[in-house]
């Protein structure tokens, strides 16, 4: 029996052309799928969902993609989403949570240079995405880019121009595509569902701060009345200053108000060991919730997902610190 895949187009460089105002997505979905070279036992269908530079993608768009996949789940063996690279890692994370437990592969891909342009990487990325989805037995959400497949919650865009724009951070690559063949490199560990959501919902009312030397503490007053959850990108292993502009009372007051403060790190690799230094242990004492080796992109989506499920800070903490879709606990 033929395998059937749905290609969902959302825009991005891959579907872009030059305009007076710079590259913008405008390629029709039918035109885009003509660049695939499906084998004899593969059938492709296309859904023209949106045409956005991924800079314009927001949580409502993640929900729309997830809903389209859920609605068509029975009809297809897998889904390929063409997407801009700038926020692809956020979308991949969001779909990993929204579609948690989905028993078919969902692969996002895109390109650094538009389809049809000289030196484009789009055709090989499309072909690799199809190869991966057709050959692998893996389920869940992945990004395929520049010959590598990575788990959606672990992908990070690390380059603005080069073909190898994405890296799998703090987690092994799952497959390499070369010369028309898939070589599986890693089998993600089995996981059990930590919660029953069933509904596609996100609480977008979160805020993220990047700490810098000299950051004012006043911002916490605003956040206390405006945010349901806060993420702080700390220095190094989770530390934040407790001298002069002391951030700890702000974290404590948010925590006391039932607003989770998730502590991640500005450092891309190796996660955080928040108890290593006094500057980290004090953050935990003030209520900071360490995000371990999770990527910022994953934390943003996970916090929105968890907040839509519960407002109990203990449960939020527990869920945030449970590995979902392989997002934490590898390092
Ligand atoms: N390479 C790309 O796709 C970048 C583009 N700005 C986008 O994210 O839609």
UniProtKB/TrEMBL annotation:
Belongs to the asparaginase 1 family. PANTHER family: 60 KDA LYSOPHOSPHOLIPASE (PTHR11707:SF28), L-ASPARAGINASE (PTHR11707). SUPFAM superfamilies: Glutaminase/Asparaginase. The keyword Hydrolase applies. Residues 205-319 form the Asparaginase/glutaminase C-terminal domain. The active site is at residues 13, 85. One of its GO terms (molecular function) is asparaginase activity. Its EC number is 3.5.1.1. One of its GO terms (biological process) is amino acid metabolic process. This is asparaginase. PROSITE patterns: ASN_GLN_ASE_1, ASN_GLN_ASE_2, ASN_GLN_ASE_3. Keywords: Hydrolase. Residues 6-187 form the L-asparaginase N-terminal domain. Substrate binds at residues 54, 85-86. InterPro entries: AsnA_fam, Asp/glu_Ase-like_sf, Asparaginase/glutaminase-like, Asparaginase/glutaminase_AS1, Asparaginase/glutaminase_AS2, Asparaginase_C, L-asparaginase_C, L-asparaginase_I.
């Amino acid at each position: 029996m033929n395998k059937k895949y749905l290609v969902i187009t959302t825009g991005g460089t891959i579907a872009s052309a030059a305009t007076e105002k710079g590259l913008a997505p405008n390629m029709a979905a039918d035109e885009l799928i003509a660049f695939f070279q499906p084998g004899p036992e593969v059938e492709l269908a296309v859904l023209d969902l949106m045409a956005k530079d991924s800079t314009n993608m927001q949580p409502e768009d993640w929900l729309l993609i997830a809903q389209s996949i859920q609605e068509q789940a029975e009809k297809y063996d897998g889904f390929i989403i063409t997407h801009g690279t700038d926020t692809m890692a956020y979308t991949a994370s969001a779909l990993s949570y929204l579609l948690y437990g989905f028993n078919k592969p969902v692969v996002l891909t895109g390109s650094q240079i538009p389809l049809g342009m000289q030196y484009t990487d789009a055709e090989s990325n499309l072909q690799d995405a199809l190869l991966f989805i057709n050959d692998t037995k893996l389920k869940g959400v992945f990004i395929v880019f520049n010959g590598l497949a990575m788990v959606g919650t672990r992908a990070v865009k690390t380059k603005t121009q080069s073909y190898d724009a994405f890296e799998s951070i703090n987690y092994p690559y799952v497959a390499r595509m070369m010369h028309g063949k898939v070589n599986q490199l890693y089998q993600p560990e089995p996981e059990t569902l930590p919660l029953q959501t069933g509904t596609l919902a996100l609480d977008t009312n979160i805020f993220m701060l990047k700490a810098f030397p000299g950051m004012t503490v006043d911002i916490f007053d605003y956040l206390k009345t405006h945010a349901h959850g806060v993420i702080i990108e700390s220095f190094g292993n989770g530390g934040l200053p407790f001298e002069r502009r002391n951030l700890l009372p702000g974290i404590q007051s948010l925590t006391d108000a039932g607003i989770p403060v998730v502590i991640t790190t500005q450092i891309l690799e190796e996660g955080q060991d928040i108890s290593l230094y006094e500057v980290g242990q004090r953050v935990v004492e003030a209520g900071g919730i360490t995000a371990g080796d999770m990527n910022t992109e994953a934390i943003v989506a996970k916090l929105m997902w968890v907040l839509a499920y519960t407002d109990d800070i203990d449960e939020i903490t527990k869920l945030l610190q449970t590995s979902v879709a392989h997002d934490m606990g590898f390092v």
